[in-house]
Specification:
Catalyzes the condensation of pantoate with beta-alanine in an ATP-dependent reaction via a pantoyl-adenylate intermediate. Belongs to the pantothenate synthetase family. Pfam families: Pantoate_ligase. One of its GO terms (cellular component) is cytosol. This protein has about 280 residues and is an alpha/beta fold. The protein folds into two domains: about 170 residues, Rossmann fold (3-Layer(aba) Sandwich); about 90 residues, Pantoate-beta-alanine ligase, C-terminal domain (Pantoate--beta-alanine Ligase, Chain: A,domain 2). It is about 40% helix and about 20% strand. The strands form two sheets. A six-stranded parallel beta sheet has the order 1-4-3-2-5-6, with helices on both faces. Strands 7-8-9 form a three-stranded antiparallel beta sheet, with helices on one face. Helix 7 links the parallel strand 5 and strand 6. Helix 6 crosses helix 7 and helix 9 packs antiparallel against helix 10. It is globular.
């Protein structure tokens, strides 16, 4: 039976534990999560284990990245199942602070990212989001001080934002993106998939199919706008309320008008019923 990871809930205890790892000159990888762990998260953990001798997984549902109208209160929290999965993967340490530990009374500092955080994608619909993400990830990086940090490519704009922040602030952390893990029908794994009804779950893979179809048409040399419009039509015809479906430069997230301006990433966000899904693929 695997040994349970050390679970730490205060910053002083975390610093002592990380210092003990560093005293052995061991490399450290961080996998930031909000819990409700699934196979996509486990793929991040496995990549972390290949990149460092010790793996720290943080589990913290970060209130500063949720708007008042969003699902902070109902976001899935599955601590026992999460810990069992991390035990099976032989994770060394779980950093599980409460809100007071992460944002003590009097907390008054925020990181306000620009660049890829203002690309007109997620930020257009969730203007609060990347400030909350950058602040909490900046804190996680300075608390754990990892050599590498692993983030999923499903949240592609987030990956670009965090990568930019780590470089701009000289945090000394190498940010590594890990490919999106999908269900057999193509739906990207997400903790929020549990919100989908049975009927919505059957419809949800349309996002992936639409991206694949538009990518195929772009690579075949079809008119750029027509290829993208075709994807949008597939999505809205399936019953989604579309926020965006765009092809962007994969590095900067700047708008493009041709795949010759690449590398190219197609990114989508849409609501199905009450559940908002995001996804992306490379072209």
């Amino acid at each position: 039976m695997s040994r349970s990871p050390m679970v730490i809930r205060t910053v002083p205890a975390l610093r002592r534990a990380v210092e003990a790892l560093r005293a052995r000159k061991a490399s450290v990888a961080l996998v930031p999560t909000m819990g409700a762990l699934h196979d996509g998260h486990m793929s991040l953990v496995r990549l972390a284990k290949r990149r460092a001798q010790n793996v720290v997984v943080s589990i913290f549902v970060n209130p500063t990245q949720f708007a008042p109208t969003e699902d902070f209160g109902s976001y899935p929290r599955t601590w026992k199942a999460d810990l069992a999965k991390l035990t099976a993967e032989k994770v060394d340490l779980v950093w599980n602070p409460d809100v007071k530990a992460m944002y003590p009374d009097g907390f008054a500092t925020r990181i306000v990212p620009e660049g890829p955080a203002t690309a007109g994608l997620e930020d257009r619909f969730r203007p609060h989001f990347f400030g909350g993400v950058a602040t909490v990830v900046g804190k996680l990086f300075t608390q754990v001080w990892p050599d590498v940090a692993i983030f999923g490519e499903k949240d592609f704009q987030q990956l670009r934002v965090v990568t930019q922040m780590a470089a701009d602030l000289d945090l000394g952390v190498k940010v590594i993106g890990s490919r999106t893990v999908r269900e057999r029908d193509g739906l990207a794994m997400s903790s929020r998939n549990v919100y989908l009804s049975a009927e919505e779950r059957q419809t949800a893979p349309t996002l992936y199919r639409a991206m694949k179809e538009s990518a195929k048409r772009l690579k075949a040399g079809e008119d750029f706008e027509a290829a993208m419009a075709g994807g949008r039509e597939l999505i809205t015809a399936a019953g989604f309320a579309l926020d965006y479906f765009e092809a962007r430069h994969a590095g900067t997230l700047a708008p493009i008008a041709s795949i010759k301006e690449g590398p190219v990433r197609i990114l989508v966000a849409a609501k199905l019923g009450t559940t908002r899904l995001i996804d992306n693929i490379g072209v």
